Amino acid sequence: MMMTDTNIWDPLRRFLERFAGILPILLAVLVVLAGGLLLAWVLDLLVRTVLGAIGFDRLARRMDVSDTLRRAGLIRQPSALAGYVVRWTTVVLTLVASLSFLSAEATDSVIHAMVNYLPRLAAALLIVVVGYAVSAFLARSVLLWAVNSRLVGARWLARGVQVLVGVFFAALALDNLGFGRTVALVVLSILLGGGVLAFALAYGLAGKDLARESLDVMLRDVRDEDRDTLSHL
């Protein structure tokens, strides 16, 4: 009977011993996670407050960044979006730090991968920022040219140029990150081909009156020349 009782309680005792062995680790992980989440919330609030105090949102509205974020479906203010990014970056770093209590090898591999990927990520972000600036500049230039030339659909033409340039730089950023170079190039080719076709159709439809007038002038010139020739005969 004693042996039977011992056999029954042995699994429970081993479980409690193992749990007691990992309990300090679990407590350390919970403390790190709680501290990281609290720090993420504080940094989010701090970033929003500082950027709001220095007029970051007003500057973003002047540079049309707010409108771009709204068109992209991001209804947050730029300062709130920056705080959101800082908060989740802190959360990710907290999760990575908590892994150090569970497995040193896993932590080393994750940190090594993140460190190796950070230059690519920074370069991709730089490409996106430069692409946005270039697309906005070209869109404004095309809009001014189209308005001065009295072209129909000047605003749509400028928007199309901005989208095409933005897609081009987005493809470059994806290629830099290593996400499907072939897919990015195919999508870019399709969009560029579609943009050229839409551009040609738009100008063909918008310029039909001008083409008709040019043909009428040419036909009148031909008729006048024929009349002059017949009158001389």
Which short descriptors sum up this protein?
elongated, mainly alpha, 233 residues, 89% helix, Helix Hairpins
Descriptive overview:
- The protein has helices at 2-53, 56-62, 65-71, 78-99, 104-148, 154-177, 181-206, 208-232.
- With 233 residues, the chain is mainly alpha-helical.
- It folds into two domains: 1-102, no CATH class; 118-233, Orthogonal Bundle (Helix Hairpins).
- The termini are far apart.
Describe the structure concisely for a colleague.
This protein has 233 residues and is mostly helical. It has two domains: 102 residues, no CATH class; 116 residues, Helix Hairpins (Orthogonal Bundle), CATH 1.10.287.
Topology:
Blueprint: H1 2-53, H2 56-62, H3 65-71, H4 78-99, H5 104-148, H6 154-177, H7 181-206, H8 208-232
Helix pairs in contact: 1-4, 5-6, 6-7
CATH architecture of the largest domain: Orthogonal Bundle
Mean pLDDT: 71
The first-level CATH class of the largest domain is given as Mainly Alpha
* Structural class determined from secondary elements: mainly alpha
Query: The biggest beta sheet, please?
Result: none
In total, the number of domains comes to 2
β-strand percent reads under 5%
Instruction: Tell me how many strands there are.
Output: 0
What integer value in Å does the Rg equal?
32 Å
Count of separate DSSP helical elements: 8
What characteristic shape results from the CA principal axes?
elongated
Helix content: over 70%
End-to-end CA span: 138 Å
Order of helices and strands: HHHHHHHH
Uncertain parts: none
Q: What name does the CATH topology of the largest domain carry?
A: Helix Hairpins
